[in-house]
Amino acid sequence: MDERAMLDLAVGLAEAKSRQDVDAALQLLHPAIQLEAPALGGRAQGRAENERALRWFFTVFPDYRVELAGHAAGADVLVCWGTAHLTMSGDRLGVPADGARVDLPVTIRFTFADGLIASERFDFDLATLCAGSGASTDAVRERLFGTERAA
User: Fold this and answer.
1) How many whole angstroms separate alpha carbon 109 and alpha carbon 126?
2) Residue 46 and residue 148: Cα distance in Å, rounded?
3) Distance CA 82, CA 116 (A)
4) Is the distance from CB of 33 to CB of 52 less than 8 angstroms?
5) Buried b (16+ CB within 10 A) or exposed e, 74-113
6) pLDDT in tens, 33-75
7) Which parts of the sequence belong to the SnoaL-like domain (predicted)?
8) pLDDT digits 0-9 by tens, 94-103
9) Which has the closest alpha carbon to 135: 97, 100, 104?
10) What is residue 70's three-state secondary structure?
11) Which domains does the chain have, with CATH numbers?
């Protein structure tokens, strides 16, 4: 897949997610899509799991918007970086947040198959998100990963 086609898919996905349009996002994903969000302990395989993951994500961050600032491409791999703008809502990560909007640096790695996005790895710093949201990083890590991983 050429760089322009990969970038068009990544931008299309960013735009769909920025609108919280799950159906449009799913159309860009390979049936065997694998999503990883290590900071949140998230991994979803296939469209059904990805749909559930996206719907959960948008309940936690209902105003999520991402701006891609740059990219680098290789053979069937694209890495994008930019800023996610989001507000943590309620206490869905196990702790109350203060409702502040966070501008969060992100890096997103995509792979492709059959003209669609085959995998997405969404990386950001959980401590930066928590600090900007007025939430305890330790409490969020405990909720997401349990005692063993929180240390």
Assistant:
1) 17
2) 28
3) 21
4) no
5) eeeebbbebbbbbbbbeeebebebeeeebebebebbbbbe
6) 999 999 988 899 999 999 999 999 999 899 999 999 999 999 9
7) 14-119
8) 777 888 899 9
9) 97
10) strand
11) 3-145 (3.10.450.50)
